[in-house]
Design goal:
By secondary structure, the chain is mainly alpha-helical. It is built from 14 helices and 2 strands. It has a two-stranded antiparallel ribbon.
């Protein structure tokens, strides 16, 4: 019976997500839309952290570049949304390939520091290249056009955009799952456990790390592309290095060794932040204490701990 818990739970969650706009006010639709987007962002990060063992402090660079790509194309070229999202995915892929080419040569803290340095450089470019990015004001005021593929939807309607995000995130999560369950994903796990032994088997560890880093950047760019229309702005805050802390925290909260962990962690993070900010102005202190306690007492993440207990693991 335990083996059927996760599929049944997933079906129930998907059913609830599909029914949400018809039973909940717009406030909750906005909250869940944000959770879905940030969940994809965290899952893209977990591909290199939870599966490959690389801790990046500059992942917001790909997320922010994807957001800016979509915002600029919507404002200047009036492209369909799907074309903009494809462009944001390509932008994240190219940037991750360039940064990864230099970063994956290093290990552990040196890798982390180099990704942080690249992330700060991308933020500086976005913040200062005012003629292109509009500087600290960001890119706003763009209109939501058609979806693309001949499909006409009222994307300005929060419920409609919620369904678009839901479908795209589910498809992207499915692709990510196939990657993680493939032979490529198994090699990534082996690299996380013991890269020296994998190298002795004749596997080019650097190339696999670069491929994982590039794929992670692609999905992060897609998440950023979804975030810009949701916020109706692409601002430098989406590229700032502090934004890179969010997928790290979400992955750890949910459980880095579990595919659905980052999505669960994103939900917890957004809900906690929303709840606490409505109660106190010192929300960062309260949120920090709660998150610290969760990390201390749920070593495998909240989702991972609950799942292990359901499956009878210690």
């Amino acid at each position: 019976m335990k083996n059927y818990c996760i599929p049944i739970a997933l079906i129930l969650v998907l059913a609830a997500l599909l029914a949400l706009p018809s039973i909940a006010p717009y406030f909750y639709i906005f909250i869940v839309t944000e959770i879905l987007i940030l969940g994809l962002f965290a899952a893209s990060f977990n591909l290199i952290f939870g599966y490959t063992g690389m801790l990046s402090f500059g992942h917001a660079a790909f997320f922010g570049v994807g957001a800016y790509a979509t915002a600029m194309l919507l404002q200047d070229a009036q492209w369909p949304l799907l074309a903009c999202l494809l462009a944001s995915t390509v932008a994240g892929t190219i940037l991750a390939l360039v940064i990864g080419f230099f970063s994956v040569r290093l290990n552990e803290v040196y890798f982390s520091m180099l990704t942080l340095a690249f992330g700060m450089m991308v933020f500086a470019v976005v913040h200062q290249w005012r003629s292109v990015t509009n500087g600290s004001d960001g890119i706003a005021g763009f209109q939501m056009g058609s979806l693309g593929l001949g499909i006409e939807l009222a994307l300005g309607n929060p419920s409609v955009y919620y369904y678009v995000v839901l479908v795209i995130v589910v498809i992207a999560a499915g692709v990510l799952y196939l990657i993680c369950r493939s032979s490529f994903g198994l090699i990534l796990r082996a690299i996380r456990q013991n890269p020296e032994r994998v190298a002795f088997c004749g596997v080019d560890v650097k190339n696999y790390r670069l491929a994982a880093f590039t794929a992670s950047g692609a999905f992060a760019g897609l998440a950023g592309g979804l975030m810009a229309p949701f916020l109706r702005i692409a601002s430098p805050e989406l590229v700032h290095w502090s934004m890179s802390a969010e997928p790290i925290l979400m992955s750890i909260l949910g459980g880095t060794g579990y595919f659905l962990g980052p999505f669960f962690g994103a939900g917890m993070f957004v809900l906690l932040e929303t709840w606490i900010t409505s109660m106190t102005h010192s929300w960062m202190l309260v949120l920090g204490i709660i998150l610290a306690l969760m990390v201390m007492f749920f070593r495998r993440g909240v989702f991972g701990t609950v799942l292990d207990r359901l499956q009878g693991r210690k």
